[in-house]
Amino acid sequence: MSPLATIRIATRALRRNILRTLLTMLGIIIGVGAVIAMVSIGRGARAQVEAQIAGLGQNVILVLSGNSSRGGFSMGFGSAGTLTREDYQALRREINGITGVSPEVRSFSQIAAGNQNINSQVMGVGEDYLDIRAWPLLNGANFTESDVRNATKVALIGRTTSRTLFGDEDPVGQIIRIKSAPFTIIGSLASKGMSMMGSDQDDVILVPYTSAMVRLMGGTTFRSFNVQAASAKRLPDVQEQITSLLRQRHRIGPGRDDDFIVRTQQEITETATATSKVMTMLLGAIAGVSLLVGGIGIMNIMLVSVTERTREIGVRLAVGARGRDILLQFIVEAITLSLLGGAIGIVLGIATASLVSSQLGWNTLVSTESIVTAFGVSALIGVFFGFYPARKAARLDPIDALRYE
């Protein structure tokens, strides 16, 4: 019997009971739809984290203050102010393969302009900060090395803070008071969006770090350094140079823990996305259970079908059909159920992902890879769970099958 005739017979058998066919496919439909929807949610979350980390800039290395120990326990980032102005100057002077370095100090301060009075984040940074973070200006200009050196009272304002204080008015040239100290706004920052920690990066005032330390916050140490390597290939070398230089400057002997943390952008990305990778795999695995249940349902219905059609199988065998023709027919029926269910499930999964994105505001990412994988798995389920019923049908004895009531 030709394969085309076998497919035609299998399709006719499935059409005899449309309701049962649809109910049999339901497990595959739900399973494939759930896999695609869950994986797309996980991949979307991961892509969002990666995009936020990319907002740090290109080829960035973060040097974090702290990591002190007390009683044998590491206190972690920020537990001690260990990065100094001399460290900053040494990095600029002695590290090869970098294009910029900027220190960073920050605090939340009271900011007043006209009749507006708010509490916002104030960050003290160097003149290289905007280039390192790839943060463009909408209007105005960045502060200069001279502004930093002379602790000039100038500021750059984020979009959220600007709208709060000045509405739609251009903030450049306006005077704001930070802790009663007057600062002139010389630049308006482009929108940066949310950080990977969920905070609004645009609710910020940037000032020269010298102005922040002398006029606003006091203190003599930095929270962190932002270092930009000349290329991605130079990142490991620059990271090693920074670690070696700071250990030497801080007089940290062999075998002793660093009192600072050095992390490349790649390491930060891997750490931040590790959780989302695990969640994506977990969600996909949980959804995949539905596929397994759907496959068991197909096998169950196919076994029932073999029992119901025993006389039909006997007649076909008696008139010359071979066992492999019967085997192929039932396998084709099982694969058809799986593939039709898989196709409907793909549409359902894509629609669910779109609905989640539009209604809940979650970032979802439907990939071709997940669609192809889910469709392929549904086909394999049809073969795997359809083989036993098909084999049972093919091994029926024609005489016994014709006598079956």
* End-to-end gap: 27 Å
Rg estimate, integer Å: 33 Å
| Low-pLDDT runs | 68-76
Strand order of the largest sheet: 5-6-11-8-10-9
Name the average pLDDT.
79
Q: What characteristic shape results from the CA principal axes?
A: elongated
Major beta-sheet overview: 6 strands, mixed, barrel
Counting DSSP E segments of at least 2 residues, the number of strands comes to: 14
Kindly give the count of domains: 2
Helix content: 55-70%
Strand content: 15-25%
**What is the string of SSEs from the N terminus onward?**
HHEEEEHEEHEHEHEEEHEEHEHHHHH
Return the structural class.
Answer: alpha+beta
The number of distinct helices, counting runs of at least 4 residues, comes to 13
